[in-house]
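Let us practice reading a record.
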Amino acid sequence: MIEELKSFLQANTQLISENDFRTLYKEYANGHEDISPLTEILTQADINPLLYLPEVPVRYANYVESLKQVYIPGHISKVLQFAFKGCENLEEVILPASIKLIGRYAFMTESNNLTIKYAKSSDDFAHLDMMYNSFDPTAIIQCTDKTATFREITDDVWDWSKI
């Protein structure tokens, strides 16, 4: 069944509208707490559902082992909780300047080599609306002015002892 769905989606990507993708996720989410299986199917079919969604949903790719790279389009401003939690093979995330909110555990990937490419400065990154444990502390954040670990960039403005 999954292979048939992947084949259908690959063959008919142009026929599926933005509204269809939103409806697909909404309908799937109504019956499932974790939408990552749907994300995994679409990703394996070389479809980036984020091109059609208004935000990165809760549990979007929760523990999807096959995910290595993520491109978050510029129209997205929110990455909700658990979005990429446990994606241990995730190596690169392209985070647009439009991002305003990053939910709890969104990028706690357990990956040993995660790089986040952020289209603004390290000061802008450190001032994003982020929940505690949004990122692995060792994740590398590449900003327009600085490359450092998440902890190094955010330590400048966050008092970790109060969290």
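A brief commentary: The helical segments are 2-11, 18-31, 36-44, 122-126, 150-154.
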